[in-house]
Design goal:
Elements: H1 2-20, H2 22-35, H3 44-51, H4 55-79, H5 83-91, H6 96-134, H7 139-148, H8 152-180
Helix pairs in contact: 1-2, 1-4, 1-6, 3-4, 4-6, 5-6, 6-7, 6-8, 7-8
């Protein structure tokens, strides 16, 4: 949860800054596009060196994965806002800040919420994978230890626990999304 909320929130904020300001886009987009294709799991050895085997490394990897998804999702969502909406608001005398707050942000909410669902699933996958490879606690660590001793029931119970948590959280996000975007014709 910490990875998902932290990485997603930061990703949306950076994505909005990139979409709004050309020099932020010029400065950050090459870096993000260079790092984005790297699977977070490939960074586990570095994260263990930097953070150790505690929760900080797992949280960082999950947040990094969510951050990348949400930056791209947000910048694409802003570019998908029909220009006629912005032009109509400006022709009625709205300034840039008003247009951003009252036109662009409401228009991108459905896409941002779908990005949250993707980020949530990704956070689960990355954190569990990090626990497989380098953690002292966690369901992933439990599953890995059980698989080494051929304790199939523990492996299945751990896997089912992850699935239940992920499905329930996705269901919660999906219902909240439908409620929040009940005004949208595309929900």
């Amino acid at each position: 949860m910490v990875s998902w909320v932290g990485g997603s929130t930061l990703g949306v904020a950076v994505g909005l800054m990139m979409a709004r300001t050309w020099w932020v886009m010029a400065a950050l987009n090459p870096l993000i596009e260079a790092i984005r294709p790297i699977p977070p799991v490939a960074l586990i050895p570095f994260v263990i060196l930097w953070f150790g085997i505690g929760d900080d490394g797992k949280i960082f990897l999950g947040a990094l994965a969510c951050f990348m998804v949400m930056v791209v999702n947000t910048t694409v969502a802003v570019t998908n806002v029909p220009p006629v909406y912005v032009q109509a608001a400006r022709s009625l005398g709205s300034n840039t800040g008003f247009v951003y707050r009252r036109v662009i942000l409401p228009a991108i909410i459905p896409e941002i919420l779908s990005g949250f669902r993707i980020g949530c699933a990704l956070a689960f996958a990355v954190v569990v994978a990090a626990e497989f490879l380098g953690a002292d606690l966690g369901i992933g660590r439990l599953i890995m230890q059980a698989s080494r001793t051929l304790n199939t029931s523990t492996v299945l119970l751990g896997t089912a626990s992850i699935a239940v948590m992920a499905v329930l959280l996705d269901l919660l996000i999906s219902r909240l999304s439908r409620y929040i975007t009940r005004w949208s014709a595309n929900r």
